[in-house]
Inverse folding.
């Protein structure tokens, strides 16, 4: 049930509550069709992470997320042996052998220690074992650059080799989505293998549609008011311009207070849901008569 | 796919490469595959197929749009105005005139350097060097290796003493078939802090621009992955990539081509804001040692500069301001921009001579 055209993919995504524009739908379609990772950049809160989740639900694939951070290494990203359980197993076998009065077979015992059941699969290994699967490598720029080389190797082969167990290969390679906030430049070797897409803030009409689809309980008027206000805030040169995520938060905050439209008092009271810097709040209040 | 279409696409990629986008062979192959996969019937499909495969960073997008419009006759689909500032590489390039041509004329005496001991040269103001002295200073600046101090990272390494390392201890026990063995210990691995260099290349800094860019080159070469360099003038330009060149002269030439506002005016607050918005806040300045080379001449409102400096000082580990005038006797930070920035600085140093640059290396490595 893989959608055959970008438009069909956009429809499937809309079916799971994600409204993708032309570019993003084409990007997703090509990533599936060409089997290339998709590299997404864009301001925080434009829906990069949500896109990967929606892609998984729309194509009926598993979803595995690897959140990158500084110091991330293979034991946390790929696999790790469950040492305490191995020791427990060892002791149990020994105790059982002692009770039965015979000597444990050391070679067989050691082999049994490196069984698949003692292997803890971290996100990358999970993504290879669960198939089909959408693998989200979130905020790749936060990981160290050594990690990129390591990731590149796994993405290229869609397989890993564990010395004690052997090779584990994915029946179908995972569909990989990488996101970056550009805190540092990701290596060209990784980017070259990916499709690159810059995710824009949605247009007014799209944003209204997103709010209506995510929060069906709010009035159309409120959705339009919030979308309009957020669109104008983005023109204001703020420290942190609100993304779709903030627009949704703000709408739920307003709806929780029983608002049916955006009135100045409620807007001022809930501004903290959409603007996260004191300077931004002041600037919006100064520049926006529609809020004061 | 017909060979006609392929050659059209390859030609388009060449146009794009000439405009400064890194549309290399592998990317072109991907575009051809993408066009084939999309069964292109609408111009929008061709637009997206090319954009998704040939571009690699937001700066590429405006160039791509322009090239697409020019090559395929303006059939790029309308999309919301990009939130990405226009790329500078395609902008009119200013010829890089000799930064200290005027000042050097009066002292252009090659014999002077033969007689002057190294110590005198080290203390001489970089703005008034003769041609021979300049060559010598350039050689010595290239030998500087500014590097930041380390901080503990999240990764560990085995150590003789320290906290217990559970995985290694257990692995040791496994090797002895579960018998308790000696405890393995670990300590945190150190990692150098990021170094961010912001260079003012406006007219008033012109006599120092060459030496400071060379200093930046030395820093980028020392730790290419953990150093970032930007120039500030009327706008912000990232020159890290250009400065990664091995050869200092090649690196400076590349940087010169990338910088559109050599020796122009100064809008420090605006370009600093551009840095913080596009790079600093997202992480480049977080926990970093930020070194700003400027004389503090600010055309705009000093209050705006103070606001941006406050933001910078909240993000960065240390903020170092290098002002060449500080090395001159009787200097007081009276320039409005400098006075506004002072409260947010951790270090305020001179950097007007080779000796001062050596001191700066010390300041950077201490912080």
């Amino acid at each position: 049930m893989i959608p055959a055209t970008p438009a069909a993919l956009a429809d499937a995504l809309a079916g799971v509550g994600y409204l993708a524009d032309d570019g993003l739908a084409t990007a997703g379609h090509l990533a599936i069709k060409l089997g290339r990772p998709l590299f997404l950049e864009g301001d925080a809160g434009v829906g990069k992470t949500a896109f990967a989740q929606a892609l998984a639900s729309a194509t009926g694939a598993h979803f595995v997320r690897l959140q990158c951070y500084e110091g991330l290494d293979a034991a946390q990203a790929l696999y790790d042996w469950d040492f305490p359980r191995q020791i427990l197993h060892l002791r149990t076998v020994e105790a059982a052998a002692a009770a039965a009065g015979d000597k444990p077979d050391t070679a067989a015992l050691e082999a049994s220690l490196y069984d698949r059941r003692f292997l803890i699969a971290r996100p990358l290994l999970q993504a290879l074992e669960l198939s089909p699967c959408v693998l989200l490598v979130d905020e790749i720029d936060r990981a160290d650059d050594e990690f990129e080389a390591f990731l590149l190797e796994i993405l290229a082969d869609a397989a890993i080799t564990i010395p004690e167990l052997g090779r584990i290969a994915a029946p179908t390679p995972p569909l990989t989505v990488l996101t970056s906030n550009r805190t540092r430049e990701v290596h060209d070797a990784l980017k070259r293998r990916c499709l690159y897409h810059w995710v824009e803030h949605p247009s007014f009409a799209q944003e209204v549609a997103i709010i209506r689809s995510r929060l069906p309980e709010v009035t159309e008027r409120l959705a339009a008011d919030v979308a309009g206000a957020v669109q104008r805030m983005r023109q204001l040169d703020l420290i942190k311009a609100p993304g779709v995520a903030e627009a949704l938060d703000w709408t739920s905050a307003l709806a929780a207070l029983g608002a049916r439209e955006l009135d100045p008092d409620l807007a001022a009271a809930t501004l903290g849901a959409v603007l996260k810097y004191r300077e931004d709040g002041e600037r919006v209040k100064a520049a926006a008569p529609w809020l004061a | 796919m017909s060979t006609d279409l392929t050659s059209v696409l390859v030609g388009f990629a060449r146009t794009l490469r000439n405009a400064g986008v890194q549309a290399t062979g592998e990317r072109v192959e991907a575009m051809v595959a993408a066009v084939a996969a999309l069964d292109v019937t609408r111009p929008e499909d061709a637009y997206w197929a090319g954009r998704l495969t040939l571009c690699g960073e937001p700066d590429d997008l405006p160039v791509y749009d322009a090239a697409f419009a020019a090559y395929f006759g303006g059939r790029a689909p309308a999309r919301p105005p990009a939130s990405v500032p226009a790329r500078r590489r395609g902008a009119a390039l200013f010829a890089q005139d000799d930064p200290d041509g005027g000042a050097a004329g009066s002292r252009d005496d090659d014999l002077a350097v033969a007689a002057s001991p190294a110590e005198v040269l080290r203390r001489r103001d970089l703005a008034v060097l003769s041609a021979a002295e300049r060559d010598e200073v350039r050689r010595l600046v290239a030998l500087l290796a500014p590097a930041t101090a380390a901080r503990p990272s999240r990764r560990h390494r085995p150590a003789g003493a320290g906290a217990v390392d559970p995985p290694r201890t257990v692995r040791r026990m496994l090797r002895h078939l579960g018998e308790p063995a000696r405890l393995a210990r670990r300590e945190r691995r150190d990692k150098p802090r990021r170094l961010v260099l912001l260079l003012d290349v406006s007219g008033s800094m012109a006599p120092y621009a060459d030496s400071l860019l060379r200093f930046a080159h030395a820093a980028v070469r020392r730790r290419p992955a953990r150093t970032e360099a930007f120039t500030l003038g009327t706008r912000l330009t990232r020159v890290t990539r250009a400065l990664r060149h091995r050869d200092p002269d090649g690196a400076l030439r590349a940087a010169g081509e990338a910088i559109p506002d050599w020796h122009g005016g100064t809008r420090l607050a605006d370009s600093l804001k551009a840095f913080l918005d596009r790079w600093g806040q997202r992480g480049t300045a977080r926990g970093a040692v930020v070194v700003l080379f400027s004389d503090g001449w600010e055309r705009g409102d000093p209050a705006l500069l103070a606001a941006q400096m406050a933001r910078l000082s909240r993000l960065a580990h240390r903020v170092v301001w290098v002002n060449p005038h500080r090395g001159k006797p009787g200097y007081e930070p009276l320039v409005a921009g400098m006075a506004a920035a002072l409260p947010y600085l951790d270090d305020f140093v001179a950097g007007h001579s080779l000796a001062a640059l050596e001191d700066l290396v010390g300041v950077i490595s201490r912080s």
